[in-house]
Design a protein that fits this description.
The chain is α/β, with parallel strands linked by helices. The protein contains six helices and 15 strands.
C-alpha cells in the first residue's frame, strides 16, 4: 500500500526566541501504536514520520521540538490514532495576544464597561491587545478615547473595519482578528462581556495544568429585567456608576444580584476563551456563511471537538454577558 504524501500545513510560529514562521511537513498513516502523546503537552516521541522544515526526518528517540528555538510541539490525533496535523508550534509559556471585539449592536457604554473589566486583568503574559472595531458607527477616535479612560500596561492596537457589510458578523470578525495576531496563544473576548478580575489568570492556569487547546468557563448571561427582554435599554450593570466596578470582587459580584441565565454549555458555545492560532489553522476558519449573532461559535467548537483537541471548562462564572439588543439566530 502506497503511503500518502505529506501535507504541507503552515503552522504559525513566531517565537520570541527565533522570531520566524516555520513550515512543517505533516503526514497521515494507518493506525499504529508507536506514537506517544504526553498529556502534559510537552513531549512527543515518534518514529520517522515527521520531517523538519528542511525535510530531514525526526527519529524515534527525538523529542518533537522546533528546530529553530527548541520549543516543544503538539499534534492532533483523530479517534483511530492517525496523525492528522501539528496543532501547535510554541510552548505553553509563550506570550499571548488579547483579542477584544467591538461590534455594531453595542454602544460605547458597553465597550467602556467591558474594557474596564479587561484593564483589571493580570496582563504580565500579554504581548499586545488587538481591539477590532467591526463596522460600528463610532469613530476610531471615540473608541480610543474610551479605552484611554482605563490605561493598560501593554500595547493596544485599534483596527477599525468600516466595511459596511451587514453579513460580516462574529465569524468574520473572529477570522480577521486571528489573522492580525502575532502570537499563537490567543485570549478572545468581546465588548459585550464583563470579566472577573482573575479571569485571564485562571484561564491561563487551566490551560497549563490541563494542556488544553481551548479553555473557557461558565457564562453568566445578564438581562435588563426579570423576563430578560431583548430590548435596546442600557442595563444598570453597563453604566459607569455600576456597583460592581468598585466592589473588590469585580464583576463576580453580579452573580445572584441581577436577572440572568446561568449558562453551563460553554463547551459548545463560549464567547470568551483561550486558544491557539494554530488550532484555527488546523480545524479551519470560522464559517462566515453563518451570519446570525448568536450561534456561529458552535460550529467552530464542534470542529475542535471532532479533531479530538482537549477542551476544558472551568466550573465557575468568570465572564458575564451584558444585556444588549441584537438580532439573534
Amino acid at each position: 500500500m502506497t503511503e500518502p504524501e505529506p501535507m504541507r500545513i503552515p503552522i504559525p510560529h513566531r517565537s520570541r526566541q527565533c522570531g520566524r514562521t516555520a513550515l512543517v511537513f505533516v503526514g497521515t498513516r494507518p493506525p499504529r501504536r508507536d506514537y506517544m502523546l504526553s498529556y502534559s503537552g510537552r513531549d512527543l516521541l515518534a518514529t520517522g514520520e515527521y520531517r523538519w522544515p528542511n525535510g530531514e526526518p525526526v527519529h524515534g528517540s527525538d523529542k518533537l521540538v522546533c528546530p529553530e528555538c527548541l520549543k516543544p510541539l503538539r499534534v492532533t490525533f483523530d479517534a483511530e490514532q492517525n496523525l492528522v496535523a501539528l496543532s501547535r508550534m510554541s510552548d505553553i509559556e509563550d506570550m499571548l495576544t488579547v483579542i477584544f471585539i467591538y461590534f455594531r449592536t453595542l454602544t460605547l457604554d458597553h465597550l467602556d464597561a467591558a474594557w474596564f473589566s479587561l484593564s483589571q486583568q493580570d496582563l504580565t503574559s500579554v504581548e499586545e491587545i488587538i481591539v477590532l472595531d467591526n463596522n460600528t458607527d463610532d469613530a476610531p477616535d471615540a473608541i480610543r478615547d474610551r479605552l484611554d479612560h482605563y490605561p493598560v500596561s501593554v500595547p493596544v492596537r485599534v483596527v477599525s473595519e468600516k466595511h459596511g457589510d451587514p453579513r460580516r458578523t462574529h465569524c468574520w470578525s473572529s477570522n480577521r482578528a486571528f489573522e492580525l495576531s502575532t502570537t499563537d496563544n490567543l485570549f478572545v473576548t468581546r465588548a459585550d462581556f464583563l470579566l472577573n478580575p482573575d479571569c485571564l489568570a485562571r484561564f491561563r492556569a487551566a490551560q497549563v495544568r490541563e494542556a488544553a487547546m481551548f479553555t473557557t468557563s461558565w457564562c453568566h448571561q445578564m438581562g435588563c429585567d426579570a423576563s430578560l427582554s431583548n430590548t435596546d435599554v442600557l442595563a444598570d450593570h453597563s453604566k459607569p456608576d455600576a456597583g460592581w466596578r468598585t466592589d473588590p470582587r469585580g464583576a463576580a459580584s453580579l452573580v445572584g444580584a441581577v436577572p440572568a441565565n446561568h449558562f453551563h454549555a460553554t463547551d459548545v458555545d463560549a464567547g470568551v476563551y483561550l486558544t491557539y492560532q494554530s488550532v484555527w489553522v488546523v480545524v479551519g476558519r470560522f464559517n462566515e456563511s453563518m451570519v446570525g449573532w448568536g450561534v456561529n461559535q458552535q460550529d467552530w467548537q464542534r470542529r475542535i471537538a471532532r479533531h479530538r483537541l482537549h477542551l476544558t471548562v472551568i466550573p465557575d462564572y468568570l465572564f458575564h454577558h451584558q444585556h444588549h439588543y441584537a438580532p439573534r439566530g
